[in-house]
Specification:
about 90 residues, three-stranded antiparallel β-sheet, alpha+beta, single chain
Length: about 90
C-alpha cells in the first residue's frame, strides 16, 4: 500500500548536494527516489529534529545524519550488464 507523504516529513528531509526526486510512504516506511545521482560523489542525508512519528507520536530529538558514496560510471555499467544478463536467463551474478 502506498500513501501520500505528510508534508512535514518531506520538509524534514535534506540531501546534500541537492538531488531532485520523489517521496513515497510504503508499508510504514519513507522512501526517497532520486531522479539521478552523480557518479563518485559523497552525499549527506539529514532527517531534521522535530519530526514526529505518526505511529507512536515519538519526537526525533536530534538530527539523524548519514552519508553514502556512489560508485563510478564503469561500476554502474558493469552492474547494468550483469542485471541484463541475469534477466536473459543467466542466473550467476559475479
Amino acid at each position: 500500500m502506498t500513501r501520500n507523504l505528510p508534508a512535514e516529513a518531506a520538509d524534514a528531509f535534506e540531501i546534500s548536494p541537492k538531488v531532485e526526486g520523489s517521496f513515497e510512504v510504503k508499508m510504514d516506511k519513507l522512501y526517497f527516489h532520486p531522479k539521478e545521482l552523480a557518479a563518485e560523489k559523497i552525499y549527506t542525508v539529514t532527517i531534521k529534529k522535530g519530526l514526529v512519528s505518526k505511529d507512536d507520536g515519538e519526537l526525533l530529538k536530534e538530527d539523524y545524519v548519514f552519508m553514502f558514496e556512489t560508485g563510478s560510471r564503469e561500476d554502474r555499467n558493469a552492474d547494468s550488464k550483469k542485471i541484463e544478463e541475469w534477466s536473459n536467463g543467466i542466473t550467476e551474478i559475479t
